[in-house]
Write a structure and sequence with these properties.
30-stranded mixed beta sheet; binds 2-acetamido-2-deoxy-beta-D-glucopyranose; 13 helices; Leucine-rich repeat, LRR (right-handed beta-alpha superhelix); LRR_R13L4/SHOC2-like; alpha/beta; about 15% helix; repeat; 14-stranded parallel beta sheet
Length: about 950
């Protein structure tokens, strides 16, 4: 199952053209008589329609009085005076990447409501209806829309991840025989159509967009219906769940041959040579990305003489660079990103050598597995504006010929994640049109100087880092240098920018995204600079430096900040309460500093806070109860401080809470009952090294996603609950991989360096139950042997008695197993020998008796301290058992060995299949390419991803 949620912008020029066409035709009958007053009947219809709309920002406040033709969004035909156009599109710039994005305004920008009033039918001459990007809270598209037979333009699309309209598309839309333009595109499969019979009646249709509409049950008929639309110019069917068997390979005739744009990206179609497609000879743009490809196919695109834009990203191309023999001269953009292409790009470039001139403007070869030096012949593409070669294995330097030939065209140069080495060429400073330069994650050495930037007057986004141990040194001749650019985004990791905050950096006052990790910055953050960027900065990451002093006090001037990441520095003092005035704050990461004092009490001011990490500081006091008021909290990490008091009950409001790290503090009291009852989303619960007491409650077993449970070093008493076999994510050996993965991706994307902070810990590979160092008594419940996903089980240093559960060998993935310092008795079960991954075992200081089992991994665990302190144990690696005589006892043959290997393999396979089929396609898709640059796209992506993954979770359960 592949899930794609693509964000392809509608191709603007053609759309504009269509609107123009529409406007022109609606004005065709203009006479000189201008009728502009409003028909009373239509005025009333509009007012009834308005009554059922919610309008938080008062957009429709002009809808009063008699001149309805003057109202916002309304246009009348200036000959007849009838209302012709209702345009209530929400134009709030959510998708533009405009960083002046204001949350409050955004949330208020939607018109909404639970009803579209049928009074609209009073507008008999309505030809244009646009309600797109609003929030209709999950209503169906009303059937009566089909009675508005004058409609030429209908738009219910949404560019946001809302459940705006849902359900089956009403077949009454088939009555709209005048329709030219129909857009029902959404992002979440909330609309569907069982068959598209209605579509075939729309014979005037020129533009059709059904992106995100579930068409999986239409069989092959979707194509037959589309084939009844001879005027079609644009067809957008991306992410429609059109499956592999839904694409007919042959058609008797194709009669939508005027088609200019074909977008079928993000389906699961196996394009194996559908001949009819190459009869669409007018095509200028084809996007088939995110499908799969086979057959002798690529050459066929050459036959499409008009083709200008071709996107074949993530279609599973393999092998040598595809040959586009000849017809490359017309091509303006090509994406082959995320395919596995062997070798270099010389052969591809040779395809351009016949062109008297080429028009290539955008070339995207991200993640193609390309290897080698960059060929100078790239410089032939003199019109190139966007060059994306990231995530390959290019090495060497950037040839001079390329730089000088492209110096007046190139706007984007993305080379991140290759193995470019040596020094960064100074001539890059010639690329005078450059907006975006990304050199990060290569093996650069040496210096950056003023010369590298000399003509980069337009540069907005700059990223550099090296994977070498020696950092890149920002080596200025003129300490007072002021760069020619004003950056919006700067990402420098593993560079030497400091000491101090250099003047060139302080001259950058338009910054929106700052990530200066491990850059040698020291001293205090210059307040004046911070103040200058405070009104627009979204992302501030100054982690892993030597910055000292107090946290900035004037946090209240930051209005849009989403992320504060100041971890691994030398900040001291308290967290100022002004930080709570940043209402937009999403994550606050302050771990590994010397912060002290309490959390500010004004916490409840935040409404979107998701991640708080203050671990490894000297903070103290209670966690304020206000902390649970913003229910958005997803991760709270306060470990290794001096916090005290009880675990605050207010956290029970946080219904998304997935990770709670409270270890290494002075918390007291018991485990609150909301964990597992009110909040069941928890995946990580770390409470170790506190002074918690009471029983381990049964409600912990109601955490189906839990995979780390650490209660060690506390004062818990009573028995181990016998319900642990209800911890769903631990009883399936592959389930937790998926869940954990979701955590990481949804929360810590964006700056690669930081992702790794969490990734390196492999959080999602960890499955731990640690109850050690408590006062637990009674037997180890047999249910524990159901936790087949468990890798660590530590019950040491308690008062546990009775036998080791006989089926302990079921825990096939167990790597660490510690039962030492208890009162366990009886024999060690033979099944222990089936734990083939065991690397740490400790059974010492118990009352175990009899022969130590042998075989498999146990033979390698030959340290006698594993078993010592059990006076009645015998056998390898302790002394021989009395009955053994002179001969070493032969180990019991583990007859089920092969079977176990098989089981393990299938667990791993299950993981790989589950993981990659759900998540793999998501990671590899288009938008991830811009990883840490496109911060905005990331927010969008997170939302999309969260939704896509929710879908995935649902589907995975079926
Ligand atoms: C009629 O309306 C169109 C578009 O709304 C406008 O461009 C045109 O100037 C109007 N004609 C007159 C005579 O006002
Ligand atoms: C389009 O082609 C189909 C055959 O696939 C034919 O039956 C139909 O009549 C044609 N429709 C139009 C509108 O030309
Ligand atoms: C495609 O075009 C060729 C040549 O113009 C024609 O013979 C063939 O019938 C067409 N196929 C379809 C499916 O329309
Ligand atoms: C965001 O919009 C609200 C409402 O218009 C306004 O009060 C607030 O000042 C704006 N914030 C910023 C940072 O512009």
């Amino acid at each position: 199952m592949d899930i794609y949620v693509y964000f392809n912008p509608i191709s603007r020029p053609i759309l504009d053209f269509l609107i123009l066409l529409f406007l022109a035709s609606s004005c065709l009958n203009n006479s000189s008589v201008v009728v502009e007053s409003c028909m009373e009947e239509e005025r009333r219809a509009l007012l009834s329609f308005k009554q059922d709309l919610s309008d938080p920002s008062g957009k429709l406040s002009s809808w009063a009085g008699h001149e309805c033709c003057q109202w916002t969004g309304i246009s009348c035909n200036n000959r007849t005076g009838h209302v012709a156009m209702v345009d209530l599109r929400n134009t709030y710039p959510y998708t533009t990447g405009d960083y002046q994005w204001n949350t409050t305004e955004y949330l208020q920008s939607f018109l909404g409501g639970k009803l579209i009033n049928p009074s609209l039918l009073g507008l008999k001459h309505l030809s244009y209806l646009d309600l797109s990007s609003n929030d209709f809270q999950g209503i169906h598209i009303p059937k009566f829309i089909g009675e508005l037979t004058s409609l030429r333009y209908l738009n219910f699309s949404s560019t946001q991840s809302l459940n705006s309209v849902v359900g089956e598309i009403p077949s009454s839309l088939g009555n709209l025989s005048n329709l030219n333009y129909l857009d029902l595109s959404l992002y979440n499969y909330s609309l569907s159509s069982k068959n598209l019979n209605w579509l075939s009646h729309l014979s005037s249709l020129k533009y059709l967009n059904l992106r995100g509409v579930n068409l999986s049950s239409t069989g092959v008929s979707w194509l037959h219906e589309v084939n009844m639309l001879p005027s079609l110019l644009e067809l957008h069917l991306s992410s429609c769940k059109i499956g592999g068997n839904q694409l007919p390979l042959s058609m008797p005739t194709i009669n939508f041959t005027s088609l200019l744009v074909l977008d079928m990206s993000g389906n699961s179609i196996n394009f194996s040579y559908p001949k009819w497609m190459f009869n669409l000879t007018s095509l200028t743009k084809v996007d088939l990305s995110g499908n799969s490809f086979s057959g002798p196919f690529l050459d066929e695109f050459v036959r499409l003489k008009s083709l200008e834009h071709l996107d074949l990203q993530s279609v599973g191309l393999k092998g040598q660079f595809p040959k586009f023999s000849g017809n490359l001269c017309r091509l303006k953009s090509l994406s082959l990103a995320s395919n596995q292409i062997d070798g270099g790009i010389e052969e591809f470039l040779s395809g351009f050598s016949n062109c008297s001139f080429n028009r290539m403007e955008s070339l995207d070869l991200d993640g193609c597995g390309l290897v080698g030096k960059l060929p100078s012949s790239l410089g032939m593409l003199r019109s190139l504006q966007h060059l994306q070669l990231s995530n390959n294995s290019f090495w060497g330097s950037i040839p001079e010929f390329i730089i000088s030939n492209l110096s007046s065209s190139l706007k984007t140069l993305d080379l991140y994640d290759n193995i470019f080495n040596g020094s960064i060429p100074q001539s890059l400073g010639k690329l005078s049109q450059l907006l975006r330069l990304d050199l990060s994650y290569n093996s650069w050495e040496g210096n950056l100087t003023e010369a590298h930037f000399i003509n980069l007057t337009k540069l907005e986004s700059f990223a550099v880092s090296t994977t070498q141990h020696v950092p890149i040194i920002f080596n200025l001749i003129d300490y007072e240098w002021i760069p020619p650019f004003k950056l919006h985004r700067i990402v420098m990791h593993n560079c030497r920018v400091g000491p101090g905050f250099p003047i060139w950096l302080q001259s950058q006052t338009k910054l929106v995204l700052v990530s200066l990790e491990n850059t040698g910055l020291s001293g205090a953050i210059p307040e004046e600079w911070l103040f200058k960027i405070s009104s627009h900065i979204l992302w501030l990451d100054l982690s892993s430096n030597q910055i000292s002093g107090k946290l900035p006090f004037r946090f209240n001037s930051f209005q849009n900040l989403r992320s504060i990441i100041l971890s691994h520095n030398q900040f001291d003092g308290t967290i100022p309460s002004s930080i709570c005035s940043i209402q937009s704050l999403y994550e606050l990461i302050l771990n590994n500093n010397q912060l002290s004092g309490e959390f500010p009490k004004e916490w409840s001011l935040w409404s979107r806070i998701a991640i708080v990490d203050v671990s490894n500081n000297n903070m103290s006091g209670n966690i304020p109860s206000s902390m649970g008021i913003p229910s958005s909290l997803y991760m709270l990490k306060t470990d290794n401080n001096h916090f005290s008091g009880e675990i605050p009950s207010a956290l029970q409001n946080c219904s998304f809470l997935e990770r709670l790290y409270l270890g290494g503090n002075k918390f007291t009291g018991s485990i609150p009952s909301w964990i597992g009852s009110k909040v069941s989303t928890i995946t990580v619960l770390q409470l170790q090294s506190n002074s918690l007491s009471g029983h381990i409650p049964h409600h912990l077993c109601s955490l189906p996603f839990l995979h780390i449970l650490d209660l060690s070093h506390n004062r818990f008493s009573g028995t181990i609950p016998n319900c642990l076999n209800k911890l769903t994510s631990l009883i399936h050996s592959s389930y937790w991989h998926l869940i954990g993965f979701i955590d990481i991706e949804v929360t810590t994307v964006t700056v690669k360096g930081r992702v790794s902070e969490y990734l390196e810990k492999n959080v999602w590979f960890l499955t731990i139950i640690d109850f050690s160092h408590n006062d637990l008594e009674g037997e180890i419940p047999e249910e524990i042997s159901s936790l087949v996903g468990l890798a660590t089980l530590n019950l040491s240093i308690n008062q546990l008695s009775g036998n080791i559960p006989s089926r302990i060998g079921n825990l096939r993935l167990l790597e660490t197993f510690d039962l030492s310092q208890n009162q366990l008795s009886g024999q060690i079960p033979q099944s222990l020998a089936s734990l083939t991954f065991l690397s740490h075992l400790n059974l010492s200081c118990n009352k175990l008796t009899g022969r130590i089992p042998s075989g498999n991994q146990l033979q390698t665990l030959d340290d006698s301290s594993i078993y010592e302190g059990n006076p009645s144990l015998c056998g390898f690696p302790l002394s021989k058992c009395p009955e053994d005589g002179d001969h070493m006892h032969e180990p019991h043959e583990d007859e089920a060995d092969d079977e176990k290997l098989g089981l393990y393999t299938s667990a791993v396979l299950g993981f790989i299949i589950g993981f990659w089929s759900v998540c793999g396609t998501l990671i590899l898709k288009k938008s991830w390419r811009y990883a840490y640059f496109q911060f905005f796209y990331h927010i969008k992506e997170k939302v999309a991803l969260a939704i896509a993954l929710k879908v995935a979770r649902l589907e995975a359960r079926q």
